[in-house]
Amino acid sequence: MRNSLSDVVAAALRVLDAQGLEGCSMRRVAAQLDVQPSALYHHVPDKQTLLALMADDIVRGVGESAREPREFCVELRDAMLAVRDGADVVATAAAFRLGASQIEDRLAELAGPDGARTLLLYTFGHAQSTQTHVQAAALGALLAPARPAISAAAPSTAAPDPAADLDASFGRGLDIILAGLAAFAPTRRD
Amino acid sequence: MRNSLSDVVAAALRVLDAQGLEGCSMRRVAAQLDVQPSALYHHVPDKQTLLALMADDIVRGVGESAREPREFCVELRDAMLAVRDGADVVATAAAFRLGASQIEDRLAELAGPDGARTLLLYTFGHAQSTQTHVQAAALGALLAPARPAISAAAPSTAAPDPAADLDASFGRGLDIILAGLAAFAPTRRD
DNA sequence: ACCTGAACACCGTTCAAGT
DNA sequence: ACCTGAACACCGTTCAAGT
């Protein structure tokens, strides 16, 4: 026995993290395993399926111990942000089975079906745009590597950590949706 | 003068609508214009830019007369759903300039910056998953073309129009977010 | 069961050259 | 300004054949 399905998925996730979604080709995954591209098709019917398995792996265990929707969404976001282009992979795979995914079912127990869908779409979308921006910033830093020594007059307010900004922005959107959910189904106080 | 930039964008949108995003290659757009693939690079630096221009075209004019966020989002969704894979194209292009897009600015006037971002991410995500499902359903209908004559016993409740379901689902999510926005910044009654 | 080798039908992009 | 022709470095997938 040379390679198993989970070897393939693990290799694909390594390639994804190293090269991004665009560079995550079947041929590169095969190379990562020191195997011909055609060998992958023994384990997986096509690339789309492989991407779905990678998405499952990325979100594995998310929200298993979460007791409220907010905690759940933050965990999900962290899991997606932990691997390069993870949000894209998860969101695309999830779109194919919205209404049938495990995470959606789990979140629905905390927030109801409509709440779960709304929170998930928001969380996916925000994570995707976060990763797009982080990526663009990294590229910009590469193209202009020197630190901006000139306009360093304004000391502390001038350098807003973009990651922290995005975290805060995510939290505020979450607050809005959760407030809306509370308005629709006010906390039971039996 | 043979072809202008807008000819290229228009041709690309025709190819998109006919073949979907996956089939919308530079080579096919060129063929649509009866031109060599390399000719496109006289009008556009790369495919990504062409996709951004297509996205601009798809959302052109959306929400210009909208007086409330709900109307705005419904209009935006309709515009994206009007062309095959339109939501994907718009969402991907928008992710690259979240915080700097025209639609976001316009919606921010109605719902504030956080509200606009939350509503947009939700609207993009829901439209994307809607189109994914419509597409999958169309494919399923192709693979099983005969009408289900056997289990036609239950007359009216059994056949829930999936498009109507998705419309309703979108509306409920919108209601949740708008209720949350109202809770955060209650309607001014001067 | 797992893999090789070779092939098929594609991609996006570049570049010199034409008009 | 707009386009051709040819090339480069890739893709995903299939399939017979090997072990």
TrEMBL record, chains A, B:
<dbReference type="InterPro" id="IPR003012">
    <property type="entry name" value="Tet_transcr_reg_TetR"/>
</dbReference>
<dbReference type="InterPro" id="IPR036271">
    <property type="entry name" value="Tet_transcr_reg_TetR-rel_C_sf"/>
</dbReference>
<dbReference type="GO" id="GO:0000976">
    <property type="term" value="F:transcription cis-regulatory region binding"/>
</dbReference>
<dbReference type="InterPro" id="IPR009057">
    <property type="entry name" value="Homeodomain-like_sf"/>
</dbReference>
<dbReference type="GO" id="GO:0045892">
    <property type="term" value="P:negative regulation of DNA-templated transcription"/>
</dbReference>
<keyword id="KW-0805">Transcription regulation</keyword>
<dbReference type="Pfam" id="PF00440">
    <property type="entry name" value="TetR_N"/>
</dbReference>
<dbReference type="GO" id="GO:0046677">
    <property type="term" value="P:response to antibiotic"/>
</dbReference>
<dbReference type="InterPro" id="IPR001647">
    <property type="entry name" value="HTH_TetR"/>
</dbReference>
<keyword id="KW-0238">DNA-binding</keyword>
<feature type="DNA-binding region" description="H-T-H motif">
    <location>
        <begin position="25"/>
        <end position="44"/>
    </location>
</feature>
<feature type="domain" description="HTH tetR-type">
    <location>
        <begin position="2"/>
        <end position="62"/>
    </location>
</feature>
<dbReference type="InterPro" id="IPR050109">
    <property type="entry name" value="HTH-type_TetR-like_transc_reg"/>
</dbReference>
<protein>
    <submittedName>
        <fullName>TetR family transcriptional regulator</fullName>
    </submittedName>
</protein>
<dbReference type="GO" id="GO:0003700">
    <property type="term" value="F:DNA-binding transcription factor activity"/>
</dbReference>
<keyword id="KW-0804">Transcription</keyword>
